[in-house]
Amino acid sequence: MAFKLPKLPYSYGALSSVVDKTTMEIHHTKHHAGYTNKLNAAMADAGLGKMTIEDVLKRVSKYSPAVRNNAGGFYNHCMFWKIMVPKGTAVPSAKSKFGKAIVASFGSFENFQEKFAAAAASRFGSGWAWLCSSRTGKLFITSTPNQDNPLMDCADKKGFPIMCIDVWEHAYYLKYQNRRADYVKGFFSVVNWKEVTKRYTAACANKTAPVTTSMSDAVVKPKPTVAKKKVTAKKATTSRAKTTAKKKVTAKKATTAKAKTTAKKKVTAKKATTTKAKTTAKKAVAKKVTPKKKAVKTSAVKKVVKKGVPIKKVTAKRRRVVK
């Protein structure tokens, strides 16, 4: 499990009006990538398991300086890229919840800008300037040294970060050299106020707007090795072979069942024919024998009656004829 360097939400040259393409590319592929890789190594050395970056920061004082510095570097830059957008977005309305919070905390949006710029410009050496929210929605400005941030349990002033600016020299030196104030002034023209507002809303709901949800969401998934691919292919082939064999057995069973049914029908038909033949024969025999006897009896009686023989004698004669 490892944290993964996120892709920028825009091209390296998209913010060139404020930050040049070369600076952005080096900043992302070298500095941020370096913090990411070193954080993974430091986490592994510390034996830390699956954790969100926010969870690491909340108890970072318990870990090594390597975890603290690189966890901060990873989180801060992930947030920084999202806070900027080409050409920026519209400043929050003074009637919106966030706009009202700015006015309530700083008097006006212009006062907020001045105080934020002052915090960024006055941060000695390398560090960051932050706009944060308390759990009650109260806004405040602070700055931190190196890669520290207000989420850390060791921060001088703790809160939920909703906006930040990187004032390390590698973030602006190629274009501005020692003119940090100009860099900070230009930064306001590319602020993504939609993202800032989103983070403020999350902060008011007593939860940070996470940069990454968990380690599993920012994990580097290793590419499958050749051996693993072969095993997978072999499993797929075996599975197909088993399916084919199963289909053949099923077809064979179906054919056998059909044959048995046909044979059974033939036997039944044969039995029916035999039974019918026997019945016919029996009827023929009955028809052949019985009518002759009756004819003899009837004719004998008629003949006797015609001769005028008394009924008793006729009966006796009839009995003799029958016998």
Which short descriptors sum up this protein?
2 domains; three-stranded antiparallel sheet; 3 strands; minor pseudopilin epsh fold; mainly alpha; 323 residues
SSE blueprint:
Elements: H1 21-46, H2 53-58, H3 65-83, H4 97-106, H5 109-122, E1 127-133, E2 139-145, E3 160-166, H6 173-176, H7 180-187, H8 193-204, H9 226-306, H10 311-322
Antiparallel strand pairs: 1-2, 1-3
Helix pairs in contact: 1-3, 5-7, 9-10
Overall average residue pLDDT: 82
Query: How many separate helices?
Result: 10
SSE pattern, N- to C-terminal: HHHHHEEEHHHHH
Distance between the termini: 114 Å
CATH architectural grouping of the largest domain: 3-Layer(bab) Sandwich
- The structural class is mainly alpha
What Rg do the Cα atoms give? 50 Å
| Percent in strands | 5-15%
CATH topology of the largest domain: minor pseudopilin epsh fold
CATH uppermost class of the largest domain: Alpha Beta
Spans of at least 5 consecutive residues with low confidence: 213-226, 289-298, 300-306
CATH homologous superfamily annotation of the largest domain: Iron/manganese superoxide dismutase, C-terminal domain
The overall number of domains is 2
> How many beta strands in the DSSP annotation?
3
